[in-house]
UniProtKB/TrEMBL annotation:
Tagged with keyword Membrane: yes
Region Disordered, residue ranges: 367-421
Name of the protein described by the UniProt record: Pannexin
Family annotation (InterPro entries): AAMDC, Innexin, MTH938-like_sf, NDUFAF3/AAMDC, Pannexin
Lineage: Eukaryota, Metazoa, Chordata, Craniata, Vertebrata
Gene source species: Coregonus suidteri
């Protein structure tokens, strides 16, 4: 029961919730930089113009000036100004627009801010939670890949002493991939985003129409005649029939309207681009480097569909600063490109052994320590049983008593990483770098050895088709080859990693003829395709027809069955090749 408890705690430790006080991803941005810029300009500019309009009113005085008769007292002159200002709405021309111009600008600013308020309360809470989960899972997948690579390097030296497969006990269910797939079947968040952009665009267009009309009105007239003969003064002949009045603030308002109209007109194409940006494919390239990790299956990519997945990738790109493992994956990607340019193969597992873990949360940081202490506390007889086995089998006891060779230094995930430590980790990855300043000769030799380990060597196998030695989720070993694969191609005399990015392959539409051309050129007569552990990889009819035209027998199976079939054909001496997908 103690062993079962420890195993259960180890497997499900990833699902432990963090403490309520921890808020590592509180700074996740749920508003795109371009949208925030549009909101700030569209709201801030009218408010600035309002302040200028009211400042002009304070400095000049009232916004209207009428010419009263000479016999009017100063009180009567003030009454004329006030009466004519209040009577603006009675004229055929809508002169009242001059009167309410600052307040209409305030209304425009409020309407411009309403889409941002709607997005913040209707979509931001869910989006922030989802992005935090996806970012944390990507960091955890990177940590698992580094841990697996170091475990393989350690256990690879003791395979003869009965050590189990290093991939056993690793939780490899594709959580983040399956979670992203659920977003492909949802359009709620995308429609809310498009609704906000549509409201922004509609408000901008209406504001431009109003400002253009106001400029035309201001150019027509800023003077009008005001009649005072109303009410008790209707029959007073001492009062002129009409008085000349002028709106003194119209000139300033016209200038403010022109500036506002010009800026809003420039914002219209920006809002249109913002609305169409989720449907572009250029923002999905940043996650391609994670495909080389053995702990990550093929991440679903947008395919020009109207779904939430396109929007999530856009916001993930906006929050790359929160993805702590991204800088390490960029190192992997740069070294992979350099290896491809030099005609060498890319050994991701060998390079992962040199990288350090990234900090995720307290649960991740204390996992290994807690599991070790629980195992020693709850199973006190384990050491006695190991000693007894060592007495019965001295060779095994000696092998087990030896401590594994120390790998490259990787700081505790729970501790903060300094720039010096990160530069030490990265400097060891580059060929030609020796020890750091002040280091010993042993450190220089260690740096050279680690650089030599990163030299990407071509994997050579016998001229007969090599057997597949082992298969687990995200991990394949070909007999006679030192490196492990996630997806692989095998043929008589060799093998290499199957990189889907070379041909743009995805689960749908599936395996392309270009994926099989390299294997067919080796003269195979039978080709075996492994569709994945869950048979998610498709084989379209186009590929089947292509194989029929080439005269090569095609066998498409679930990956475990495909590996068994392939090894049987190799044992029979057949000229067989294969392409295998080891995850979903």
């Amino acid at each position: 029961m103690a062993i079962a408890h420890v195993a259960t705690e180890y497997v499900f430790s990833d699902f432990l919730l963090k403490e309520p006080g921890q808020a590592r991803y509180r700074t996740v941005r749920t508003e795109l930089a371009m949208d925030k810029m549009v909101t700030c300009v569209a709201v801030g500019l009218p408010l600035l113009l309002i302040s200028l309009a009211f400042a002009q009113e304070v400095s000049v005085g009232v916004q209207i000036s009428c010419f009263p008769p000479a016999n009017f007292s100063w009180r009567q002159a003030m009454y004329v100004d006030s009466y004519c200002w209040a009577a603006l709405h009675t004229h055929t021309l809508p002169l009242w627009l001059h009167k309410f111009f600052p307040y209409i600008l305030l209304l425009i600013a409020v309407i411009m801010y309403s889409p941002a308020v709607f997005w913040r309360f209707s979509a931001s809470p869910l989006l922030q939670s989802d992005l935090s989960f996806i970012i944390e899972e990507l960091d955890r997948c990177y940590n698992r890949a580094v841990t697996l690579a170091k475990r393989m390097a350690t256990t690879g030296e003791h395979t003869d002493s009965g050590v189990s497969d290093p991939t056993e006990g690793c939780f490899m269910y594709p959580v983040v991939e399956q979670y992203l797939l659920t977003k492909r079947r949802s359009v709620v968040l995308l429609w809310r985003y498009l609704l906000c952009r549509g409201l922004n665009l509609l408000t901008l267009l209406l504001a431009c129409v109003y400002l253009g009309y106001y400029l035309r009105l201001a150019s027509v007239t800023d003077q009008f005649g005001c009649s005072l003969r109303t009410g008790l003064l209707a029959n007073d002949t001492s009062i002129p029939n009409q008085l000349q009045c002028k709106l003194v603030a119209v000139g300033v308002f016209s200038l403010l309207s022109f500036v506002n109209l010009l800026v809003y007109a420039m914002l219209v194409p920006v809002v249109i681009y913002s609305a169409l940006r989720p449907f572009f494919q250029s923002h999905t390239h940043f996650l391609k480097s994670y495909q080389s990790l053995p702990t990550i299956s093929v991440l679903p990519l947008p395919q020009g569909q109207w779904d939430d997945l396109t929007l999530y990738f856009l916001f993930l790109e906006e929050n790359l600063s929160e993805l702590k493992s991204y800088k390490y994956m960029k190192v992997l990607e740069l070294l992979r490109r350099r290896g491809v340019c030099e005609g060498e193969d890319f050994d991701a597992m060998g390079l992962l052994q040199m990288l350090c873990l990234v900090k995720t949360d307290a649960t991740d940081g204390k996992r290994s320590t807690a599991a070790t202490s629980n195992a020693s506390d709850k199973n006190p007889n384990a050491n006695a049983r190991r000693n007894a086995k060592a007495n019965d089998n001295p060779a095994a006891g000696e092998a087990s008593s030896k401590a594994p060779a120390p790998g490259p230094a990787s700081p505790d995930p729970g501790q903060s990483q300094t720039s010096a430590t990160e530069m030490t980790e990265f400097s060891a990855l580059l060929p030609g770098n020796s020890a750091m300043t002040g280091g010993s000769d042993e450190g220089a030799q260690s740096g050279c050895l680690r650089a030599n380990e990163l030299q990407l060597r071509h994997k050579t196998c016998p001229m007969s088709s090599p057997e597949i030695a082992s298969l687990s989720w995200g991990h394949m070993k070909v007999k006679g080859c030192s490196s492990a694969y996630k997806d692989c191609k095998v043929w008589p005399g060799g093998s290499r990693a199957w990189d889907w990015r070379e041909t743009g392959t995805d689960h749908h539409p599936g395996v392309q003829p270009a994926d099989l051309e390299e294997v067919l050129q080796k003269g195979v007569e039978i080709l075996v395709i492994g569709r994945g552990m869950s048979e998610a990889l498709q084989v379209p009819s186009l590929t089947v027809d292509f194989m029929r035209q080439r005269g090569v027998e095609l066998r498409v199976l679930q990956t475990e069955k495909a590996v068994t079939e392939y090894n049987n054909l190799v044992g029979q001496g057949a000229k067989v090749g294969g392409v295998f997908h080891s995850t979903c």
